[in-house]
């Protein structure tokens, strides 16, 4: 294999009913640095895909039990993130357009060289990497690295659906940096950007990984989605965030936090999510404007719980 530009290793499933072909391609893909599994037909491939994660599937078209076209259709419907390379020795049966329209990413005709296969795989990996970068940029804030408002609006709806279905608690935190505009005007935008990025780090350190969701809502306003946390525990989390931020000593900035729980009203999840957002926003306004900031407040029905 030629030494080209480095590409990240992929988990590849190689599907072919010819044992010799499987062995040759397995060794070639392994030498490229990929992690490779094999299957002798489409049905066995489906069984592997159902219990393992793969990035790329390379499949022959003509196989017993479940052929390549059927496998491609299954993957396209059930595992759309997988890229597929179709292989056939019967060039007259299917055109490039036929196979790509069935859901494959690329098509190669036997006999082919290993260099041809390597080129196909490299192109697909480069496209996967680019696609992943674009997907990341679409839902993340470029300055802080947190999820952005676009992601929040989808995530809060999904969390609302789960909370409604399984009846587990869900809390929404609205967080605003007090005196941020004054700090930004006096210290400059670079200093302001440092405050935002450092606060994002605080949020990530204070929440549960893969459970809670931190987002930059816009400007100096942030949100937290916190499932599986009871209302009486919310102030503990809020005060921990405030304490950690205050330890950074970005004077005179402090934090105002408004908190609201999710309630099932019977009017539908969309309405219940909107009402939770409205309550959290009111709690934040009360913390920031009515009592001067540097406080956390919980809006529970008509009960205000105040932190000192």
Structure description:
The protein is an alpha/beta fold. The chain has two domains: 129 residues, Rossmann fold (3-Layer(aba) Sandwich); 158 residues, Alpha-Beta Plaits. Helices cover 47% and strands 21% of the residues. The strands form two sheets. It has a six-stranded mixed beta sheet with strand order 7-8-6-9-10-11, sandwiched between helices. Helix 6 packs across helix 10 and helix 7 crosses helix 8. The termini are far apart.
Explain the layout of strands and helices.
Elements: E1 11-15, H1 19-31, E2 35-39, H2 42-51, E3 56-60, H3 68-78, E4 83-88, H4 96-102, E5 106-109, H5 114-139, H6 149-166, E6 170-178, H7 180-187, H8 189-206, E7 213-218, E8 221-227, H9 234-246, E9 254-261, H10 269-290, E10 296-300, E11 303-306
Parallel strand pairs: 1-2, 1-3, 3-4, 4-5, 9-10
Antiparallel strand pairs: 6-8, 6-9, 7-8, 10-11
Helix pairs in contact: 2-3, 6-10, 7-8, 8-9
Concise summary:
The protein has 10 helices and 11 strands.
How many domains make up the 3D coordinates?
A: 2
Instruction: Kindly name the structural category.
Output: alpha/beta
What's the mean pLDDT score? 91
Sheet with the most strands: spatial strand order: 7-8-6-9-10-11
- What is the CATH level 1 assignment of the largest domain? Alpha Beta
**What is the approximate shape?**
elongated
- CATH architecture label name of the largest domain: 2-Layer Sandwich
Q: What's the CATH H-level superfamily name of the largest domain?
A: Reverse transcriptase/Diguanylate cyclase domain
Helical proportion, percent range = 40-55%
User: What is the CATH topology assignment of the largest domain?
Assistant: Alpha-Beta Plaits
């Amino acid at each position: 294999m030629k030494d080209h530009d480095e590409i990240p290793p992929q988990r590849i499933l190689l599907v072919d009913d010819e044992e010799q072909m499987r062995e040759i391609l397995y060794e070639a893909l392994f030498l490229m640095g990929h992690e490779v599994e094999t299957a002798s037909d489409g049905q066995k491939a489906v069984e592997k895909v159902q219990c393992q994660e793969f990035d790329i599937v390379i499949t022959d078209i003509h196989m017993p039990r479940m052929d390549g076209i059927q496998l491609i259709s299954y993957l396209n419907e059930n595992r759309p993130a997988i890229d597929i390379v179709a292989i056939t020795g019967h060039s007259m049966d299917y055109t490039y357009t036929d196979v790509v329209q069935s859901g494959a990413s690329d098509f190669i005709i036997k006999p082919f060289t290993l260099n041809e296969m390597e080129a196909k795989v490299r192109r697909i990996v480069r496209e996967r990497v680019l696609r992943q970068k674009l997907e990341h940029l679409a839902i993340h804030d470029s300055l802080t690295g947190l999820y952005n408002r676009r992601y929040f609006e989808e995530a809060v709806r999904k969390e609302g659906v789960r909370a409604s279905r399984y009846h587990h608690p869900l809390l929404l935190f609205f967080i605003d940096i007090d005196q941020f505009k004054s700090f930004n005007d006096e210290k400059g935008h670079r200093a302001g950007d440092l405050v935002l990025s450092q606060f994002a780090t605080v949020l990530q350190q204070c929440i549960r990984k893969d459970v809670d969701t931190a987002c930059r809502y816009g400007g100096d306003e942030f949100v937290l989605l916190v499932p599986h946390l009871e209302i009486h525990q919310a102030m503990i989390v809020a005060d921990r965030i405030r304490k950690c931020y205050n330890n950074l000593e970005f004077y005179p900035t402090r934090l105002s936090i408004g908190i609201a729980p999710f309630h099932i009203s019977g009017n539908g999840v969309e309405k219940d999510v909107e009402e939770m957002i409205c309550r959290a926003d009111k709690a934040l306004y009360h913390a920031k404007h009515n009592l001067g900031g540097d406080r956390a407040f919980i809006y529970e029905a008509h009960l205000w719980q105040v932190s000192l």
